[in-house]
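dumping these here so i dont lose them again. two proteins, back to back, each one seq then structure tokens. dont judge the mess
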Amino acid sequence: MRRFLYYNQDTINSFLAQIEQGLMLKQEKGEEHTGSASSTQETQTNITSDISAKVLGIGASLQGDIRGLDSDTEIASKMVKNIQEKVLHDYAFDKVHEYIIKHDMINNEAPQIGDIVLVEEQPTLLDFNYLQGLFTDGGIVKFGNEQSKKKLAEMRQSIPKGNKVPESVKSQIKVEEDKIKSAEQERVETAKTLEAIRNAVPYNRFLMTDCMLVPLEDKNFRDDPQIVAFKYGGTMSILGYVTNIIDDENRAEYNNDFAPLYNILNNAMLSFFKNKQKIYIVHPIALYY
């Protein structure tokens, strides 16, 4: 069984509609009678009959001819809708995944724009809200620097007054002072960088692999997106398709004055990666364990 962390239902349904030549989610019919009005709701699906068998454990199709307004009818209607929702969500992924594998549509080696990739990685989750909180004046990084300053002050106070400070101790104090100063400068610069990127990039969260940057939309998370950076880690499967390739060595020639401005954004994306001249922007379909 898969444990989905992120699931793009719109993309899955789009793929499945192309595979199955369309999806019929629900069909409603109304009938009028003399002196009264009644409605008949017919709920059906045309994905495949084997889906019904898998969900219900029998070979019956997901069809209903529900009439009347009594309480039993309302319960039956809710039951059918819940079963249909399950079919069009997680099991729909199985159908799409099976089709992709069967038709050899995965291209992990040298993907081009539009190609599908499927990798198992231990990615880094970039949550700008979470990271900015770490590097603010009231964040944990600043707190760590302050603790280092306190330890240095204690080291100085431990030296008896009037005694000559050994050169080795002086050297150690100087090294610690430089470390603290450098760490604080790095914190300030990182906070500025994160703020600049937040203002330029229309996403709050990304996944980073060795050479892929995967933007994430909050609406597609199966868990609270505010806690995923803290809660999840380890190796996961990433299914998506390439939407852009940032290649620092092969910049395209632009035919207008505004297009080169995107180089600034591309450089910001490349700055996330160490010693990389080429990265892939991947639109995620699903992330799962």
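---- next one ----
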Amino acid sequence: MVPVEGLFEAHIAVRDIERSIGFYRDVVGLELGIAQLERPAAFFWVGGRGKSMLGMFTSGSWPIKTMQHHVSFQVRLEDILVAPQRLRSAGITPHGRPPLGGRGEPIDEPIVFAWMPAASVFFDDPDGNLLEYICMLPEAPRPEVGVVSWSEWKGVHRNRPCAPGSNGVTPIQRLFEAHISIRNLERSVAFYRDVVGLEVGINQLQSEVGMGGALLWVGGRGRSMLGVFSLGATWPLTIMQHHVAFQVKLEDVLAAPRELRSASLTPLGGQREAIDEPIVFAWMPAASVFFDDPDGNLLEYICMLPEPPQPESGLLPWSEWQRS
């Protein structure tokens, strides 16, 4: 199939688009890419323009009301150009930009979001989650062009250099993790492993907290991660709307509890307990700090650690990990 390099985009649901724009811009420190108040929706660059992206939509609006989740995978340009043919050969229909309230038309070449700009191909997983292959393009953004086919884009682009920007509580490098809901865990693990080509990191049919899901590495171990969880029956889907993890440096995840409290936010551990130091997922291993956005979406700062995985250690505080 199409070689996936990393996790590029995830979506969350919000209640007040202007409030959330302020939170993710001024507290989380993301760069606003485009605000579409008529939808209403907004898209933020994560780690700078072109690195990864977070989309937000008000509850009940498209695409929240027409799909369960949306996840975008970063791929190379040469692979996105052949993605429609490769998807069809796997019995999957490639399609263009989904219209409000439905799915896009079948396509034989990528579409281009000119405001980014990026080439894109959409397709569905077995549960109707909307997946996307995407590749940033080197040309200058052309927001006035809208959404065009690849062949149309090649006739209108112009080159111009672009530079990322960042600010906020904790410096974010890129998007690390997103979660989706599924109906059949074994079917979905097979789809994301064998069709999308992701590596299974951990498969938990059941745990003491009723997790019932799997985590898959995107672009190789430690690069980014996709979680799939049984619909409506397991943690974390019963306690939050969406989950998004942001990759940060180790020194920043260590300082995150203090920085979050200074912004009047509560740093959380793996069971949503208040914490003063990061927790460590020993099976990865990675240091992590959770916190909520204004709508209860569960956000996370995370940093992969250089030590070998210790799955038998489970979940433990940073100070215990340091002693182990």
